[in-house]
Specification:
8-stranded parallel β-sheet; two-stranded antiparallel ribbon; alpha/beta; binds ligand FNR; 41% helix
Length: 360
Amino acid sequence: MDQIVNVNEFQELAKRSLPKMYYDFYSGGAEDQHTLKENVEAFTRIMFRPRVLVDVSKIDMSTRILGYPISAPIMIAPTAMHMLAHPQGEIATAKAAAACNTIMIVSYMASCTIEEVASSCNAIRFLQIYVYKRRDVTAQMVKRAEKAGFKAIVMTVDVPKLGRREADIKNKMVSPQLRNFEGLISTKVLPSKGSGVEALAASTFDASLTWKDIEWLRSITKLPILVKGVLTREDALKAVEAGVDGIVVSNHGARQLDYSPATITVLEEVIVHVVGGRIPVLLDGGVRRGTDVFKALALGAQAVLIGRPVVYGLAAKGEDGVRKVIEMLKNELELTMALSGCPTIGDITRNHVRTENERL
Ligand code: FNR
């Protein structure tokens, strides 16, 4: 582990330790995978305007999300089926989140039950949900999450249908058996001619979902509601009007609509023009460096979520691997803050970065 110097190096390790079908499932994007590349590359087009002769002898990266204190604005994104990566699955990931003092968003498609994750450690947890055609099943998951001490519901809104992930189609990616839903619905779709994940989504996800359904979710839970998958100012406005408690600017790690914009390129549009600080805005997609975290914060995000690097860390080294991924990003962010003249998160401003079209 000491040999690993940045989070990108975990990808190769994960590739070596995972069966090809699972590695392809974790790493892949939709269709031409244009957005997959763009999510990362768009960060490289943003440069810094570092300030000097600021006292940076102490750097404080701590922040609060929905009132919950975390050690740095780096959270764990919801990603499906961690047991494909490691036998301890989401429990290992949650323990790493607790050790790093950050928030884990547990996927609706988790391989461990949410109660198992909850009882494994004291990590602050949010539950991500997809809304099923069987609303009673989704409602029951929300109730279970409340009971198990989850702190918020993250409703993913960019999957009315599953994006076309061609590697999964070729590999006939197996349909997951989701223990969270045992006794409620069959999550086993057999046999599948293409991607089993796609077949599962087609049979369970509600493609008729609209903004009105936020009211339904609000009617069944008192937990804060975040909407994940917003990419335009029109939808950011609708989210604010619907009374949600936060937005995640996300293109689902480029796994849904190829040629969706890189998230960092729309962050400012979404925040500055519409949200105006009324609710927190989080961002995910392509965050691989502490410098990326800083750039997202400078453009207005309160925190970022990390998807693939966490899964790669888990596949390569279990709980320790996830911890190392988060720690490396934190260390890089700390250095970036020092070299930019920002001793606290509150000191990071729009003036600390320069996008492509701006003058020096
Ligand atoms: C995801 N993502 C995701 N999102 C969600 O809301 N529910 C889910 O179950 C999953 N599952 C999932 C599996 C895998 C293998 C990946 C890579 C992604 C999307 C995820 O939350 C996040 O938006 C992206 O992963 C962020 O991009 P990066 O960090 O992977 O580039």
